Amino acid sequence: MGELAGRDWELSLLVERARKAAAGDGQAVLLRGPAGIGKTRLLAAVLDELDHVAATVLTARCPESGSPAYQAVRELFAPLGPGAAESAPLARPALATGRTEPAGDTYAVMHGLYWLAADRTADGPLVLAVDDVQWCDEASLRWLGFLLRRAENLPLLVILTQRTGHGTPNPAPLGELGCPAVDLGPLSADAVTDVLRARFATPPEPAFAARCAEVTGGNPFLLDRVVTRLRADGVEPEDTHLATLEEHGHEVVARTLLTRLPPETLAVARAIAVLDGEDVELVAALAGTQPGPAAAAIRALRADDLLRPDDLRYTHDLIRTAVLDPVPAAELAALRTRAATLLDVRGRAPEDVAVLLLLVPGPPETWMVTVLREAAAVAEERGAPAAAARYLDRALAADETHVAIRADLARVLAQVDPPAALAHLERTLDLVPGPREQVPLAVQYAMTSMSAQNSLKSFELVGTVLDALEREIGPDPAPADRARRALAQSALIMSGIDEKSTVGPVAERFRDLAPPPGETPEERQLLAMLATLRTLRGGPAAGLAAEARQVLSVGDVAPGGWSVLGAVLTLHLADETTTSLAALDWLLTHAQGSGEAWTCAVGASMRALVRLGTGDVADALADAEFAHRIVTQESWGENVAMTQAVLASALVRHGDPARALEIARSVTRPRIDRFTLEYHWLLMARAQALAGTGDAEGALADLFACRDSLAEAGIGNPLFAPWWSDTTRLLHDLGRDGEAWPAVEEAEEQAAAWGTPRALGMARLARAVLTPGDAGLDLLAETADQLADTPARPMYAEAEYLLGRRLLERGDPKGARDRLRRAIDVAVRSQDRPRLDLAVTALADAGGRMRRGTGSPADTLSGSERRVAEKAAAGATNREIAESLFLTVRTVELHLTNVYRKLGLKGRAGLAGALHRPPSAR
Question: Which of 511, 568, 683, 733 is most buried by its number of CB atoms within 10 A?
Answer without folding.
Answer: 568
